[in-house]
Amino acid sequence: MAGCLAGPTARGLAVKRVAKAGSGSNMFHSVSPSRVYLIKCSGWHRSMKNSQKNGAINHRVQGMNDDDERTCGLSESDFMVERRRVLLATCVIVASGVVDGCIPCASYAGDDELRMREVKMVLRVLALRGSVPQQWTADFKTALEGYGIPAISYKPTLSDIWKEMSGRAPTTVDAVTVGDAWLERAVMEGRIQPIEDPEQYRYWDALNSRWKRLVKRDVNGRVSASGRVYAVPYRWGCTVIVFRKDRMARWSNSHISDWDDLLNPKLKNRIAFMDSPRELIGIALKTLGLSYNADVEALQVCGVSQENLGMRVRRLIAQAKVISNKDHVRAYSAGDVDVIVGSSDDLIPLAQKSSNSAVVVPASGTALWADLWCVPRHAAGGAADGEPSPLLPAWLELCVQPRRATASSGLQRGVSPLLLPNGEYKHSKIRCNPIIDSKRVDVEPIGTRELPSVDVLQKSEFLEPLDDDTVRLYQRMLHASSTGPVDDVIRNL
In the predicted model, is pLDDT for residue 117 greater than 60? Predict the structure, then answer.
């Protein structure tokens, strides 16, 4: 009773399917001028005849083969966001302008699931300003061809987005940007909900094991291989060092290459750090040859005492003139400091302003960060049953497409998840690699449109949640110093 057409029916009622690659389920969306109905059926691979009482209909959605035509579906090879489809094939009900005319689903019997709900074909996204290229939105809107609307709003900081998620009332936002450092708290406080059945979609297959580990969390927000998927990444960056080339001769005979170079006495009071206790302690751990995520057990195994680590942190703080998330950039721009440590998102644009600035990603590895798409706990997607928009999987797919994974822009606007290699150490927190000057590996500064080497990225890490014992240890260690910038660091930890 249904035919597959490339355009809308004259009666204004269309049925759309969000195809799940490799899935055994199907979603039909009946579109009328004022509302949209979703009917979900399992077993969609069963054939449906393209016939109608008034005559046979044999129109085809662009890119379909004969088998796809019978099922109103998309083949695996066509499961890409292109001009005429976004995981979305258009199937039109010819005979009727009411939902009862959706014969394809009604023809399924037995144990097959039959479910209908009213939704609006709108995808509402709240994103971090500057993190989503305008071309993505344009491509998504073009592919929908008027059958759906992407409505994207922006906030200037992740903190602003966090405030938006604090309400308990239902929201029509289907996806929000959440930084990986916020993911633990977002899960623990119930601000986001798990993403349903990600394994059925192609975007999940495209992510390597490093990403899958990062977004799988238990109910407390801790990384867990058996946890549920709470996010999908769409860009990443890292902590970098930027320094002034013309002042290099004052420090040493070579440029900065690794974290321990920041301990050079000639740099005392000449460095600006971002205000992050995890970063500061992580850098201290790296100068001792340990992991950014080293915990109490790792310190004991590697023979690093609390006193030794505390001393290393105090040495780093003594080198700093500024520890701030805003003033560190201002201090470097004004020439008050010669070296700045911060996020690539902030420092790459800063380095681009002057040919006298060089960018280094330390040879022993650095801290990685990621912006993730999460679904708010109370996301209603405009529907009465409180489920997100059916367009959400299509949006997640678009953001990790290979065609968008280009290294030509370097780190300046964030990098596709597809361009991050797996980690070298298989996520182990116990790494004992004392730095020996005679064996140190130097790295050259990278261009502002270049990515770090694969070797450096393999040694780099996302900052994972710390257990309670390790947090208490680091707090006691920081309290050993009670003056100046240390107080700010303690408060933030």
Answer: no
